[in-house]
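Anyone else keep sequences and structure tokens together like this?

Example one:
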Amino acid sequence: MRFYLSTARSGEATRAATLGFIDGLLIPRAEVLRSGRDYSVLVKELAAPQFGWIAIEPSELDAEGMISETRRMAKAAAVRLTCLMPMSLESVRAVAMSTADADVLGGVRYVCSMAQAIIAARAGASCIVLDAAALGGAEIEIASLVSHIKAVFSSSHLGAEIMVSDIRTAGEAAAVATAGADGVVCDWGTLQDLAYHPCTDASIERRLSEWHP
């Protein structure tokens, strides 16, 4: 399972690029707007560390608009970008359009059912993103949904990756990893928390006390 960082801060992206276990970035538009930054400029700035996967949230809602907006930013940043779109028929149409585009990969987020996942994958989506907060609020068991989608994709030879966003705890990350998720998308604080455990801290303190009585 891979780890992806959701951030609008260049300092977090730069540090993440040095850690060796973070494979990509999701640049959240709402967070950028709150900061007062220009979204296109920030995308170009954050693309500099050369992550293998960089996803943007388009502001347009029609298929042509979403793809052309992402294409413009991809050319400006000189990287291939994933256009991560909310699940809709227009997004599915944009996904189908992206399969012939050298600068844009099509991804669909806020997928909440098996049917939606299959439709997006059949259209050619590179990734299907489930939102842990939205699914939890609807009392949909995230790990179970991931497991079922992975099983159907495997039997149907569908290649879209299954990712889970808005993961908040190590327990959630472990559950979706066990279910077969290809990746999780977390904010900087959560990614740092995942690298720690109270038992590890206790072991370090015990060892230090032995070395420096």
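And example two:
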Amino acid sequence: MKTRIDALTRQINGVLEAHLPTGDVAPERLHEAMRYAVFNGGKRIRPLFSYGAASALQLEEDQVDTVAAAVELIHAYSLIHDDLPAMDDDDLRRGKPSVHRQFDEALAILAGDALQALAFRVLVSGGSENAGAAVTALADACGSVGMAGGQAIDLAGVGETLSLDELTAMHRLKTGALIRCALSLPALMYGADDDCVGALSQYGDAVGLAFQIHDDVLDVEGSTEELGKPSGSDIGSNKPTFPACIGLDASRAMAARLVQEARDQLTLLPGDTDLLAYLAGFSVERRS
């Protein structure tokens, strides 16, 4: 599996390289900031979900290159904005200065804006006749009924005590929406049947939530060196988290149940689901 993931990581990096302007193209510093955000050591988990969905749908992996790239560009934009002083105020991202620290706050905002716009340009460049539906799905995933909405709820929840249902609903938007979209876009672009779309959506819902729960656990247990950002930052910011809500042991158990629920959905898909099965487990086994 490592060989396959390494190959797919090289593949998506090549696609991203092809679509991102180089740092010697005006406005140079903006393009430098965009590239810094994208090529800073990310594991490309969301593109891997798209490639895994393609295999599960019996598509060629390179058919979803533009989908995978668009999703990763949205993810990169979201991390730039999440790190800003007005948001999570993080100085480190993946062990390196966050974009607003490496450049400046205004340029970081513009780099995030430009990456979001580029994502939609890349998505439609694949030439699918279903590109309109894909654009709508990606817009929903990163907008007020998806990732941005979840972040707004998260910010409003600082210092508040959220119920488990409220916390779960928030993270289904903040983290889960883009993961679900990474999985559903290949199906939308290439006309998979409703059963396959439903299975991928259910898988994504479960894995996305498990991924976030494990993030919250790592914030308690992980080191700054492992995480690439200050450990305990959520606790320090008094943000609502799963360990704070239900405790560490219950959080781990909930994540494990969700991973099994995700894997159960894979039996409904016609193609190779090995990558998706692996990613489900990885979501709760990673150290960063």
